[in-house]
Structure formats: C-alpha cells, structure tokens
C-alpha cells in the first residue's frame, strides 16, 4: 500500500484485507445491488402502482413507502448500513494502535512544514452546533469533533482513511475530484474572475480545499470548519502536500470576516449537513463577505424538484438510514429561492452538472462546460456509467446589491 503521508499508520495484512472487503462491498451495494433494486421498481413495483392509480408515483416519499414493503429494499438497506459501519471498522483499528505516535508525528509535521505558508487558527470559544455534536454523522464513531487527547488529529485521520474505502475510488486518487472539478469549472468558465481570495466553508480535512490553491496559486485560500480535530489534520495534510492554506475554526453561519473580502465562497457536500436556519444564515453570510461580482458556488445533492420520483427516493435514503437528519429537508428546498433570500439576484443564479475533472481530463471537461444541465441517475450519485457532480450558486451583482 502506498501511504500519502509519512505519519499515516500502515495497516497490517489483516487490516488491509478488511479495508479491501469493505470497499468491495460498498461498490457492490451501490452499483450492482442498486441497479437490481431499480430494475425491480421498474418491472414490478411501478407497473403495479400505475395499474391501481392510473399514473406513476410522482415523488420520492411515495416511492419510499412502496419500496419499504419490498424484501429486496430491506435487504439492500441492511447491506448498505452494515457496509457503512464496516468502513469505519476497517480503518479505526489501524489508527487506534498507534494514536500517540500519530498525534506526535502530526504535530511535528505541522511545525516542520510551516515554511509552506499555511496556518492553523483554533478557537475554543466557537460554539459547536448540536447538529454536529448530537449525532455521529455518516455513522462515524465520534463524529467530527471527538477528541481522545490534547492536540488530537484522530477524527481527521479516520475521516481521511475512511474516504478511500467509502468512495471506492470515485473521488479520485487524492479524494479531491469535487474540488478539482469545481475549481477548474471556475477557471475555464469564468476566466475574468481570476480569484485572489477564496473561502471554503465546512472543509473537514481539506481534500476539496487544496485544489483551489493548486488551481489558483496566486490566491489566498481560507478554509473553515467548527471541528478542531479535522482542522488539525487538514492543516497537517496540506503542509505535507506543500500547499499553503489558512485553516480556521469558525462557524459558517457566523463568519468572522470583513464585508466584501472574498472573490469566491465555496462549499462541497456541506449544506445538507445543516438545519435550514443555518443554511440560510450561511448563504446570507456568503453574500456579505463576497466582493461585488464575486461568486458563491456549492457542490451539493440535486434538489428533489428537479429529479424523477425514483431518483429522489434513492438519494434521500441517507436521511432515513445513515444519520443524515437534514438531508431531505435541504433537498426539498428551492435552491434559487435560498440564494435570492440571502440577497443574490435571481438572474445571477446558476446551476450545472459536471463530469469529474480528474477522470475525464481537461479536453473532455472543457467540451462539457456548455452542455445542458442533466438530472438523472448519474447526477449527484456514484454511478458506474459516470458520475456528474451537481453545482449551484450565484454571482453577487457587480454593484454589490
């Protein structure tokens, strides 16, 4: 196994076998089993409903109610929940048997690599929301905030190691494809923007932050999260890669930045983790800190209103079975209305579905920039035929209004 960082623990053969099994099971559940589940819906469940009601189901909750009666769905859900828990079970033992060495090496790496220009600023006065502390999001033991010692990076390392298993390669070699995709979309689609100051909100371990600094090397990149352990790890990880990023412990709903101080405000898979009130607060704060002409851009799950009934049901699975309590509430929103309520003009709203930059290469990616926005089984989910990330946001009017 090739390790990304010198301080990462090396799994023994048994641990590596467990990781390989969990990764393969996740792939099987989310591709093969998911495909057969869809076939059962198309061939039996939907026709039976249409015969009774004279029409097909029109929304995700109706499909969910129908599918819960099906043994295949119950088996699929049980397998998926167990596969999710196996992800962490396959990486935590490797981390736990060398906790002291990991934390010491990580602290040394952050100190020794300070010359790269990145910084870490923690703030114990930050009030971490209950939406983060009250549930182990994604079924991650300890969530984002659990700490086992002073100056602990454990939860960040667990997150990083688990991502490799969880995504079974679909996020790219460095788990950074979302960041690479969105940053290069901005570079190629809006060359006039040339951002000099970029903010990533809800950055966790910075896997999608670093691409912004790599794509726009002259820019100052700031990244925030409320959880100290993932920020410590994110800073160490960035320093190890030699990429300068300024990590700060901060709540995105209460940004400690001046008005009109950023060219781009970015988030990835972040909004669906927030209660609706915090989503609105974050978007209003993003509008405040953006310069006139600046860009808010979020990679997220596509809205339920734009998806077919089955796709909506499938994407909302996590809300019911994977400790994602705000998932469906977010996807039920009108994303344009969320942006206009925060101050953005309706005509400045944008949404796009993009192929994965690190998978298709620049030429194919450039060709796809002006393709129509598509909402189907490849949008917002890991699909063997090729995933497309969903992105939405808005420009702040050049007048600042």
Structural class category = alpha/beta
**Number of beta strands:** 8
Strand order of the largest sheet: 1-4-3-2-5-6-8-7
Q: Uncertain segments of ≥5 residues (pLDDT<50)?
A: none
Q: Secondary-structure element sequence?
A: HHHHEHHHEHEHEEHEHHHHEHHE
**Radius of gyration from the alpha-carbon trace, in angstroms:** 21 Å
Which sheet architecture does the biggest sheet show? 8 strands, mixed
Provide the residue-averaged pLDDT.
93
| Structural shape | globular
Q: Number of helix segments? A: 16
Helix content: 40-55%
What does this structure look like?
The structure is a single chain. With 401 residues, the protein is of the alpha/beta class. It contains 16 helices and eight strands. Helix 1 runs antiparallel to helix 3 and helix 6 packs across helix 9.
